[in-house]
Specification:
Helix 3 packs across helix 9, helix 5 packs parallel to helix 6 and helix 6 runs parallel beside helix 7. A six-stranded parallel sheet has the order 11-10-9-12-13-14, with helices on both faces. A three-stranded antiparallel sheet has the order 1-2-3, with no helix packed on it. By secondary structure, the protein is of the alpha/beta class. The chain contains ten helices and 14 strands. 31% of the residues lie in helices and 17% in strands. The structure holds NADP nicotinamide-adenine-dinucleotide phosphate (NAP). The site of NADP nicotinamide-adenine-dinucleotide phosphate has 29 residues, from helix 3.
Length: 389
Amino acid sequence: MAALRYAGLDDTDSEDELPPGWEERTTKDGWVYYANHTEEKTQWEHPKTGKRRRVAGDLPYGWEQETDENGQVFFVDHINKRTTYLDPRLAFTVDDNPTKPTTRQRYDGSTTAMEILQGRDFTGRVVLVTGANSGIGFETAKSFALHGAHVILACRNMSRASEAVSRILEEWHKAKVEAMTLDLAVLRSVQHFAEAFKAKNMSLHVLVCNAGTFALPWTLTKDGLETTFQVNHLGHFYLVQLLQDVLCRSAPARVVVVSSESHRFTDINDSSGKLDLSRLSPSQSDYWAMLAYNRSKLCNLLFSNELHRRLSPRGVTSNAVHPGNMMYSSIHRNSWVYMLLFTLARPFTKSMDQEKQSVKSQGWLHPSNSQINGRHSVHLFAKLLFPPR
Ligand SMILES: NC(=O)c1ccc[n+]([C@@H]2O[C@H](COP(=O)([O-])OP(=O)(O)OC[C@H]3O[C@@H](n4cnc5c(N)ncnc54)[C@H](OP(=O)(O)O)[C@@H]3O)[C@@H](O)[C@H]2O)c1
């Protein structure tokens, strides 16, 4: 049997051993199927036992699941630097109830964060969420805290942050939550935050770069940069640089960058196709709020991909995620037009409860909805937040 052979246990006469010409593979969702190379056919049932099976648990440390251009799932072992079509968990499959629909994915847009986190215990994990006093950040922080993690709410306004901490403690008085000051519009504040965090000598297992601003009129920060660009991208970029050593020390760890599908509607190249960095922090005359937001979200995506490339060999993964469209948070507060649009869209969009699953589940594992980022997907949000166990 291929899986056992892979695990170095090929000398077996188990009833699960496949007849010659058969091979077992897995789908993206972890279902096992069987391919017969002689007859060129596939089936869900084991050719000998008739059982349907699926893989159990997370991938081993250092492994990652990818999908090739033909939609075929393959696995990358970053530690030993090899690639295989065999799921390393195939040696440990479990029977599945055949009456269960095999096409349904485990999580979808209506799944709530609590459903995703059911049975998870994050005791001993340290999670840092930026912009955690409201919206997606608050729900994310709360869900982790209610599942045992030590959660730090990194917010620019301490009274709003303390109120958020109290709201979480009201739900569970034993929750380990604390607020710290972080204003992403001030690079000095980011630096102070990182110093204060490091002074605590804590690990950092999950860093959620969530804080964001949208539809702002043109303003410059104290650092002389356009505000949307600095808050949404550059401040987070700097934060991750400053905390990189802590993340690496805490590996396995992960960074989750809350981006947006709207990254598609812009680019940062000029008309000749060359990278035009002046577009990132434009002057007032070249400024359009929507475009500035989209560009900052494109930066989120590119940053996350590059971070992943650089840090994953050291056990720190990074994924960008689109949490859902037009969810009713306070993101629209800077413009009455968007306030109206978000209000009208509210009955048809995801609730905060459903959204935060995106930040948490490994919906973060369906194929890309972006040509730029092979890891960017609504349903991946939730899974991305699960620290590897
Ligand atoms: N809602 C959606 O439909 C949607 C769609 C796609 C992507 N997203 C992304 O999701 C993320 C969260 O947005 P949300 O919808 O939850 O909006 P939200 O409720 O407005 O939350 C944004 C958070 O960011 C914080 N923040 C803003 N400026 C900051 C700064 N200078 N320093 C530190 N924190 C700052 C806010 O703090 P204050 O309360 O102090 O302002 C707030 O806690 C954003 O990155 C957004 O781009 C949202």
